[in-house]
Amino acid sequence: MEKMKRISFNRNEFSGAFGDIGTDLPLITALILAFGLNITNVLVLFGFFQILTALTYRIPMPVQPLKAMATIMLTQKLAPNLLYGAGLAIGITMLFLTLTGLLQWLADRIPKSVIRGIQFGLGLSLAQLAIRNYIVPQGLTGLFLGAAGSVLTLAFLGNKKYPPVFFILALGLAYILYQHRLETFSIPALQLTLPRFQIPAREDILSGFILLALPQIPLSIGNSILATRQTAHDFFPGSNLTIRKIGLSYSLMNIVNPFFGGLPTCHGSGGLAGHYIFGGRTGGSVIIYGLFYLISGLFFSQISEDWLLAFPLPLLGVLLFFEALFMMMLSKDMMASKSDLFIIFLVGGIIVAVPYGYLAGMIAGTLLSKFIRKYWSPAE
Predict the structure, then answer these.
(1) N or C: which end of the chain has fewer CB within 10 A?
(2) Beta partners for residue 65, in sequence order
(3) Does 178 map to a domain?
(4) Which whole-number Å values give the CA distances from 60 to 197, 231, 241, 263, in the listed order?
(5) Sign of dihedral through CA atoms 110, 114, 120, 125?
(6) Where are the strands (E) in 5-106, listed by range?
(7) pTM of the entire predicted model
């Protein structure tokens, strides 16, 4: 029986706790504001499953909003109820794939070079998002904050005594105090508010499956399951993390979330890298991160849009950009093989450039890998 990893709480775990906030917070805020979602429901459920996941895995296993679903919701302006129906639909679908062994069957047939390509493609996508959406639109201010945050990160990355996120948060707070008057922010009264129970409608489950869950499934299998397991093994070689365990926790979150107004969520290789590179080594970083959302949702549900949008996007972009770099750097162990490297670049490029890129990349990369092994053996 595997010995349970100890959960720690120290300055490095605190630093690592916010390594994935650049991915999560803007997306959560956008969904809340665009669709008028119940803030208590969203934040409490998101924080609760962070903590439950940390206690289950004992490593900085992240919980993130489902990105493909969120993007389709925001761009096509679908009815908010579809989000809950789609969450339940994908939870049931992933539970079926896990319990029948189909998820493991897929994992056994997708080569490591393809998984590295998925990680590389995800890194490229996150880097583009950080630069194009978080830093450049803010003009000179964005470039200044992005450059300052990058210098601080490079200077203190890996420093156990002075982790970089402390300086990023301090810079962000200084910017808020400089840019806004404190009286422009409404400070809500401390009041306990609990999530409300709801039952997704049958038609929302069916429509949500077709419109939202189906486009999300290839991304979830590629990134949330396969790439996450590989990334966990990269950072924690002794961890006995199985496809079945990840699939079950993914399913549980999405079966429970819709009944309490929580966002559809997943695990993610980029989030795991984000927690790790900024100092997280145990589930402590994820618990700290989860408490941030849980306490906000329970006691500050009347929080204003000003507070949600206060932290400067360029600094979130810096965190996201370094997370992306480390995701791409995970491919360095396969650079000795020309064929593997070609597959990594091919899959990564497809993910960035092609609609349904995760599905197309997995199929193309797997078929090419089989062809190379059978018919072509170039000098490595």
Answers:
(1) N
(2) 265
(3) yes
(4) 29, 11, 13, 20
(5) negative
(6) 64-65
(7) 0.89
